[in-house]
Amino acid sequence: MNTKEFxxxxxxxxxxxxxxSNIAKNYxxxxxxxxxxxDYFWRKFSVKAMNI
Length: 52
Hints:
Blueprint: H1 9-34, H2 38-49
């Protein structure tokens, strides 16, 4: 695993924010693909179980 060193906390914070911003663009699609569509049923189940 490659480690990255940062000069300041702000640099690290900016890097982490960028990583999550890039992931967020495709998260739902990848979640659906990798779970073979089961994420949809888990979401429905969870909402029903919480009586929302």
